[in-house]
Design goal:
heterodimer, A: alpha+beta, OB fold (Dihydrolipoamide Acetyltransferase, E2P), 2 domains, five-stranded mixed beta barrel, 3 helices, about 35% helix, elongated, B: alpha+beta, six-stranded antiparallel sheet, four-stranded antiparallel sheet, 11 strands, about 10% strand, globular
Amino acid sequence: MNALKPKHQRLVLVVLALVALVGAGLLAAYALRNQASYFYLPEQMLADPPEVGQAVRLGGMVEEGSLHTAADGITLTFAVTGNDGSRVPVRFSGIAPDLFVEGSGVVAEGRLGADGTFVADNLLAKHDENYVPRELQEMEQHQAAKMAEETTVGLE
Amino acid sequence: MIAELGLAALWLAAALAALQMIAGFMAVRQGASSELASLIRPAAVVQGVLVTFSFAMLVWLFAITDLSVKLVASNSHSMKPLIFKLSGSFGNHEGSMLLWVMVMGLAGALIAAVEKRLPENTMNATLAAQGVVSLGFYAFLLLSSNPFERLPTPAAEGMGLNPLLQDIGLVFHPPTLYLGYVGLSVAFSFAVGALLTRQVTPNFARAMRPWVLGAWVMLTIGITAGSYWAYYELGWGGWWFWDPVENASLMPWLAATALLHSASVLASRDALRTWTIMLGVVAFSMSMVGTFLVRSGILTSVHAFAVDPERGTFILVLLGIFIGGALLLFALRANTIREGERFALASREGALVFNNVMLSAILAIVLLGTLYPLLTEAFDVRVSVGPPYFNPVGAIFTIPMFAVMAVGPLLRWRQDRIDRIGKEVALFAALVLAALVLVSLLSEIAILPLLGLAFGLGLAVASLMPLRRRKLSRTPLSTWGMIVAHFGVAVALLGMASESAFTEERLAAVEEGGSATVGPWTVVLQGVEPVAGPNWTAIEGRLAASYGGGEARVLTPQSRNFWAPLQQTTESALSTRWNGQLYAVVGDRAADGRWQLRLWWKPFVTLIWYGGLLIALGGVLALVGRVHSDLRHRRLASRIAERRADREAVA
């Protein structure tokens, strides 16, 4: 190590630091492409399902009448519906968020099982008027627009 | 009247910041002889007093719940307990920005009042830089987030504070974190001042070091407090979520940790000059990136109080000016900084440089992971980045860092041979390997917690090794600081690894009188009762928890309903033993009358926060040691000067 020409030490340090940082950047970029968990709407999940076991998020409306609690008292099953009537069954074990009810929006974090059921580790529901999961926020806007469209058809 | 006084003080403080900036830059131009130069320090001190007064007025408004002030009406409530009224003054966007500028004003006042070691010219440039940064934030506060705005007609009742924030954590977490964030602005100003006057010297590093240490200690405490708060308040049993807001506090901490170590090298060895300056700029830039992420409303979380694109743009522009300006200055001046002292790769400097690079790499990984979702969102692709990314990718750089951290303090400055400390290295390696083999044989745990346990154990022992062959009573306080802080890292690491390796979770529906078990604990649900607080009602479960059949302790987790604003929160109940914590949450009632219980047994989880506190304690010891020895040197120097003057007078 001491054979290094002293004159070049600063240069060597800079190069080493750059290599490490660029390495970290490349590694991060590579890992992000593989590890980021993507957001799916029910229709997207049915049309182009993610790989089984890959961490993704599913967002939609909880279908009316689909929410059931299993006999163990802690496992919930329900269906999430999209804009065009597509539905994905979801299973969740845990304490659901407070404002999680039928007919409201939900974002489920988890993975798609081999049987086509989405197994959620976590549910995000509308918390209060100030804290709405980002995906839900926008979905409600879309739906409001759609509803407005439907109710104003033919009025002109 | 109170609100108007506060606002007037704030405008005056802003004017003084402008004076400080202009006078500072003119003094740097014309040399310290300029008349304006004598105004700089008083301006900084008075500015600190004014902005503190302004903040006190805001706290006063919250204390008396003056509902004619918009901020109070939209964030407070007359029925709230007094402590949360007071802490609620910074539990919102405007108030927290006022807290930010207050801390900045105080830091500026403090350096103006006590820092006498640096050449006057460098000090003027430093205070001018501090003036620029403060002025930007005053402008932000006054033009787009005025905390003292009145309502045309006073509100009948306030809207209340987010219940998640109505907790003692709010009293500690934001102020300490801000002290850290903003304390780094001092390091930034020092770096800019030193660049402007071309005074990147060991003296500069010695002057900067206590400020960096202080900011770093506060940041450490703030992060530790925030982590524990999130752990018990959110009711998910997690202590770190890789949430963008958490990352926003971790990034300045990583940069400050690197800065702290490189400033040490510059102070004692006069090496790493450019690198230290660069880190000074980066550390505060990360504070501002954090503020931007949290305050601009591009993230949704409990921390993002305001969603207002105008504010986001304002902070982004400020960010661009400060960081861009500093980097430009750095690019222009970096080549004029003379190269520092050289050192061999196998030396204490070498180890410190290696870990500096590792810390920077981890910083880059966290930064990219945090910004990536924002970037993809611009292309309408929604992603979220979480532990599956941060944990393994971070570990690639963290593990070598721990290895070097174990042996680095044993090396000598400038030049050393690894074989001189061969025994210690072998001991560390043996400990790590033995732990790896033993733990993986005894239990089946994932690779990362396994590595964490092994390195935590090795590091705990290695961090004490610099004490070997030293007289304990004669070891300098700052060395003790390093040892305690490094030991704290090991302790926290053991806690994290143990939590993720050995946590047991149990989710059960239990009828009253029924029981559930988790790990060594048996928990009996004795009953569920309604209870009421000052601004909430709750359902409270009474649990009798016994460890290994021992005496039962009563736990009372609640599910609270606040009425202003209308919101439900989960209040977890904790039972702490020396070897871990039982974490209990009560959930909904199932249709058949059973109650949902969620229980976790988390062995040694408390080590995480004890470790954090030890790290902070190490910082405090180092700070006290440095300041103490500095004062002694100064006294000695003045005595020598006196004697010399006497002798000359006699001659």
